[in-house]
Design brief:
By secondary structure, the protein is α+β, with helices and mostly antiparallel strands. About 20% of the residues lie in helices and about 30% in strands.
Length: about 325
């Protein structure tokens, strides 16, 4: 699952603010940055500061999928990523790429981890194809095909230098569209399998996630079939000891919250079953089956030791521990 960062450059030569003809892109042009080593944000800084009469919608490296010109939110704007003098785009698609197409740059080289950047590049293209109902075999073209006398990117430049063919790239995009995938819409994550939005428990990348009835990924506590589960900030189900709001909880390997006595690391702990709390008790005495047990400041049951317990006398003289 990857997140798209939208950090648009200011309007100027690089971003005119003009909308794509028809309000929807008709195809996409795959680029790479050519000289290598420049990150997504390096490119954003350059285009925002220098405002050349050139640009692309999105730059992707091993950390970011960075849209610098609106393309997946609202009506896409134009970017200047293919020169107007070439006519291949007009012959293939009936108009100039700058006016009807999306330009996506792959950042590579230097300290950029190729495998991570490439995975994000493939994922983003699959995302665009799903969004705009494209067949990647027909709607994604390399820059080198549109401007063969001047350009080699990305198939004859970044791809070939990293042992990737154009056919392999397109196949990777097709597979990414067919397989399971995450999609973020209006700030919420959804999981799709073979194009169908999923609900309930899903396993992805060896991690369990829970999607509510609307398909939204859940974060925090979730009750399912009488058991409580805890989903982390990334949505993945948590196991083991977890610290939440200054309280400790233990999640079984199944993810279910533990209640009552727990033997862990050679020590006994008591997870409060009252009101399905599950919080570990400490600095207190618990009564179970007619016997009282003392739990120290770490929540460990005291054994073979002397303990001092503070008690309060009630009106009738009975003690409350």
């Amino acid at each position: 699952m990857y997140e798209i960062t939208r950090d648009y450059i200011s309007k100027g030569n690089a971003r005119s603010g003009q909308l794509l003809v028809g309000g929807k892109p008709q195809f996409g042009v795959a680029h790479d940055i050519g000289n290598g080593a420049s990150t997504a944000y390096n490119n954003r800084t350059y285009f925002n500061r220098e405002q050349p009469s050139a640009s692309a919608h999105t730059f992707i490296d091993d950390k970011y999928i960075l849209e610098i010109i609106p393309v997946t939110v609202g009506v896409p704007e134009k970017a200047w990523h293919v020169i107007y003098d070439v006519t291949t785009d007009n012959i293939m698609f009936g108009d100039d790429a700058n006016d009807i197409a999306i330009g996506v740059e792959l950042c590579w080289g230097g300290n950029i981890v190729w495998a991570e950047a490439y995975k994000r590049y493939v994922w983003y293209w699959a995302y665009l194809c799903r969004m705009f109902s494209w067949d990647p075999r027909k709607k994604i073209v390399p820059h080198s095909q549109l401007d063969p006398k001047r350009k080699t990117d990305p198939d004859k430049n970044a791809f070939v230098k990293n042992c990737i063919t154009w056919d392999q790239f397109i196949s990777d995009v097709v597979n990414a569209m067919i397989d399971s995938y995450w999609q973020k819409t209006d700030g919420k994550w959804y999981f799709y399998k073979n194009g169908v939005k999923q609900t309930g428990w899903v396993l992805d990348n060896n991690k369990w996630y829970y999607l509510d009835a609307a398909g939204v990924m859940v974060i925090g506590w979730q009750k399912d079939k009488g058991k409580w589960y805890l989903l982390g900030t990334d949505g993945a189900m948590l196991t083991g000891w977890q610290h939440v709001n200054d309280k400790w909880y233990y999640m079984h390997p199944s993810g279910a919250t533990a209640f009552g006595w727990l033997f862990w690391g050679g020590k006994w702990y008591y997870l409060n079953p009252k009101n399905e709390s599950g919080a570990m008790l400490k600095d207190t005495v618990v009564e179970d089956n007619g016997k009282k047990y003392y739990l120290n400041s770490k929540g460990e049951m005291a054994t073979n030791t002397e303990v001092k317990v503070t008690a309060k006398a009630t009106n009738d003289g009975s003690l409350v521990l």
